[in-house]
Amino acid sequence: MLKGERVKLGPIKREYVDSFLRWFNDPEITQYLIAYRPMTRMAEEEWMENLKNREDSIHFSIVIPNEEGSEKLIGNCGIHKIDCKNRVGEVGIVIGEKEFQNKGFGTEAMELLLEYGFDTVNLNRIELYTYDFNISALKSYKKVGFIEEGRKRQSIWINGSYHDAILMGILAEEWRKKKMV
Ligand SMILES: CC(C)(COP(=O)(O)OP(=O)(O)OC[C@H]1O[C@@H](n2cnc3c(N)ncnc32)[C@H](O)[C@@H]1OP(=O)(O)O)[C@@H](O)C(=O)NCCC(=O)NCCS
User: Is residue 80 within 8 Å of residue 93, measured between CB atoms?
Assistant: First the structure.
């Protein structure tokens, strides 16, 4: 369990399947993700089952303590496409419980994920793609230190129009320098 001030990154549990299904069938969430087909229970359970075999990715739940002293699941995140030779990984994050978006939880979870990626997995570079209309993501990623590195112009067709996918990256040396400030 990785602990921040307000959020924790923990394991993915089977009992999360209903929340994941709700998030990944919600167009308000999926408009920001690659996924656009309806997510079935069968596919979600298969994804969960296969996590243990995935050597090139590491997934976490994002939870916060609730009043009863237990934990509330609010999202998930992970490092994918881990390339051990070049020490590069791609991150993804979703705060699926919409009332918890834009309250800083995603940014804190991403900070924990970067710390894990750089200090535990020993990556040298972490990258991601987001879309030009995803204001929350762009602001959140810039806050943790990602730099815009390029644009794939009109590579995304969503909600009836084309959008740019934005490549962002952060290097281990930049992360460590930022942490020292
Ligand atoms: C992207 C995401 C992880 C960011 O996490 P978060 O906890 O919501 O982010 P934060 O609250 O730290 O930062 C978002 C910022 O965008 C701002 N924002 C959101 N919508 C805005 C708008 N329309 N105009 C201006 N600012 C806006 C928020 O006010 C906040 O600003 P602040 O830094 O001044 O507080 C989360 O919103 C999310 O999961 N969204 C849905 C799925 C998604 O987009 N995943 C990422 C795919 S690349």
Answer: no
Number of domains in the chain: 1
32 lines ligand 1 (CB under 6 A): yes
Q: Candidates 102, 146, 168: which one to mutate for ligand 1, based on the most atoms within 8 Å of Cβ? A: 102
3-state secondary structure of 54: coil
Ligand 1 within 6 A of 102 CB?
yes
CATH number, domain at 111? 3.40.630.30
> Quick count: other Cβ atoms within 10 Å of Cβ 147?
12
pLDDT at 46 over 80: yes
Ligand 1 centroid to Cα of residue 57, in Å, is 24
Instruction: Please check the confidence at residue 1 and state whether its pLDDT lies above 80.
Output: yes
pLDDT at 181 over 80: no
Q: Which tens digits make up the pLDDT trace of 48-62? A: 999 999 999 999 999
Q: Which of 144, 152, 133 is nearest to 31 (CA)?
A: 133
Residue 66 pLDDT > 90: no
Range of the domain at 12: 2-180
107 ligand 1 Cβ < 6 A:
yes
